[in-house]
Specification:
18 helices, alpha/beta, elongated, three-stranded antiparallel β-sheet, 440 residues
């Protein structure tokens, strides 16, 4: 059975970059009728916060990405310890004692010699006595996985055939000096024991994947299918990593982005398929194909989310937004007409407040100097309210007859005088909603 996972660290709020990973794994599992696991990678006790665990769940629920079960790495430390013992028994795990300064000096020396800055495995040459002396002097060391220095190869679901020379990669640290288990081994143990069959993650993990494949094999497991998606950039190709903190899902939600608009964009962004607004999850699942994605950096522009949200809102019936409209104070009898008129003129539901304020209180008129006499004459011809669907046509007809104006020269000054804006709903439909006209 197909099993995927989304494995966020609860050290902050999830953002659009995290969502890309979560959504791809979710869609693969759902399309195959498989299992989607939410795995909280909380092995760092200092940085992991329960408030972020709750926030991650809230964000995923808002999007409709429902998991089949939750796992927490902090509850599986015994499994990682057992895996570490297995690697020690097989001679694939060794303790190293270099300080960060010493490692930096080694890297600089290798670079100066034109060699790749790979850990030199000096710790493997230590005798038991030397290790004991270093441990007494410096405390516990770090534990490194001894790579088999051969080529590591796999067929990536997005990048195609990958081949990495393990001799060009440092033996990865799997356990820190303070005993904290690192992601590389914890993820391997979890993926193996939880039966994860497919792993989709960012292309910055490619080298990490190579080392994890060897660790999986050393532990007697079978590597899942890997796919590495491209990283997001800004709309001009600029690095997005520094801005991801401002693109947290909860911030986009607060700005009025609709879940299906966000999901529709992220499910196609970076693929050979055009972005198409979907109105339900089943359509997204059916249309998803990981092989359609490319390796090139993918441009993300948050501005694209708002027209998509507007188009999504146009498809909603009154029942879906009735509560929001009632909260604005729109009388029940006007709620239906108000929504039918305004849904084509908003990008988010937040925009409804401004339109209702205009209908309820009137707008400050915008009148060009050349139009003042014309508007004053026109306002004298405006009938008393309440207005209906025929008011705009009858009024503009009367004004045209009285002034000789027509076309844009007739309609635009009157629109701006009534609404204070050059654009907006069809005036014939808007007039019955206007409670006050300030230009009188």
């Amino acid at each position: 059975m197909t099993t995927t996972r989304f494995a966020p660290s609860p050290t902050g709020y999830i953002h659009v970059g995290n969502l890309r990973t979560a959504l791809m794994n979710y869609l693969i599992a759902r399309k195959a009728g498989g299992t989607f696991i939410l795995r909280i990678d909380d092995t760092d006790p200092e940085r992991s916060k329960e408030e972020y665990v709750d926030a991650i769940k809230q964000d995923l629920e808002w999007l409709g990405l429902h998991w089949d079960r939750v796992e927490r790495q902090s509850e599986r430390l015994d499994r990682y310890a057992a895996a570490a013992d297995t690697l020690r028994d097989k001679g694939r795990f060794y303790e190293a004692f270099e300080t960060p300064v010493e490692l930096d000096l080694k890297r600089k020396k290798q670079l100066n010699m034109g060699k790749p800055p790979v850990y030199d495995r000096a710790a493997l040459a230590l005798s038991d006595e030397e290790r004991a002396a270093l441990r007494a002097e410096r405390g516990q060391g770090v534990w490194r996985f001894k790579l088999d220095q051969a080529r590591i190869e796999w067929t990536d679901g997005i990048l195609g055939d990958i081949s990495i020379d393990a001799a060009s990669v440092s033996d990865p640290v799997l356990i820190r000096q303070d005993g904290q288990v690192l992601y590389t081994i914890a993820s391997v143990v979890d993926d193996t024991e939880m039966g994860v069959t497919d792993v989709v993650r960012g292309s910055d993990h490619v080298t990490n994947t190579a080392t994890q494949i060897q660790i999986i094999e050393a532990l007697g497991g079978t590597a899942p299918r890997f796919a590495h998606h491209s990283l997001l950039t800004g709309p001009q190709g600029e690095a997005l990593s520094k801005r991801l903190g401002t693109l947290a899902l909860r911030d986009l939600r607060a700005r009025g982005v609709a879940p299906m608009a966000l999901l529709s964009l992220m499910a196609r962004l970076g693929s050979s398929d055009p972005v198409e607004l979907r109105t339900d999850m089943a359509e997204l699942i059916e249309g998803f194909d990981i092989s359609r994605f490319g390796a090139a950096p993918t441009k993300f522009d948050e501005a694209d989310l708002f027209p998509l949200t507007g188009r999504y809102l146009q498809s909603l019936p009154l029942e879906a937004v009735a509560g929001r409209i009632a909260d604005l104070g729109v009388p029940e009898g006007l709620a239906g007409p108000f929504w039918m008129v305004m849904r084509d003129n908003i990008e988010t539901l937040h925009d409804l407040e401004g339109w209702w304020t205009l209908c309820r209180d009137g707008a400050d008129p915008v009148i060009e100097d050349d139009d003042r006499a014309f508007v004053a004459e026109a306002m004298g011809l405006l009938p008393e309210g309440p207005f209906d669907a025929e008011t705009w046509g009858a009024w503009t007809g009367a004004v045209k007859a009285a002034t000789g104006r027509k076309g844009r020269g007739l309609f635009m000054p009157l629109r701006k005088a009534l609404t204070g804006q050059a654009h907006g709903p069809d005036m014939a439909a808007l007039m019955p909603l206007l409670q006050v006209v300030k230009a009188r």
